[in-house]
Amino acid sequence: MKIPVSGFVIHSNDSNSEHSHELYLTSWDGRQLHTHHFAGVTSFNAGHDHQYAGMTEPAPSGVPHTHYYFTMTSFNDGHKHEIRGVTGPAIPLPGGGHYHQFHGVTTVNGSHPHSHRYSGNTSSS
Q1: What's the pTM value of the predicted model, to 2 decimals?
Q2: With pLDDT > 90 as the criterion, what percentage of the chain qualifies?
Q3: How far apart are CA 49 and CA 29, in angstroms?
Q4: Strands (E) located in 1-125
Q5: What whole-number distance in Å separates Cα of residue 105 and Cα of residue 118?
Q6: Partner of 58 at 20 to 30 A CA spacing, among 8, 21, 71, 109?
């Protein structure tokens, strides 16, 4: 079975012998896909907090949906944490478009093992 897909590839100029390409899908089986930016600051735990930013994975437009997300926090106090999860459902905006809420707990890390809470809203689309 063939599924029509469109998108674009970005070539990495990394000098490493193992290079990669990033594939960004813009449509899947005739449905337009979209992403959202997300960013914020974690809770203040163990004497510090972390900043984070990223982009959700693509999802179809015009239907009920959520987005997976993943990023790493800033390097603070000698370590960083992983953030990953699934956004809540789309929340419509009065003028059109929508956004998603997200929240969770980072991975445990640090010389004194701990985690941080995080939450926020994605950008609108």
Answers
A1: 0.76
A2: 66
A3: 42
A4: 5-11, 21-28, 31-34, 37-41, 51-55, 59-60, 68-72, 82-86, 91-92, 98-99, 101-105, 117-121
A5: 6
A6: 109
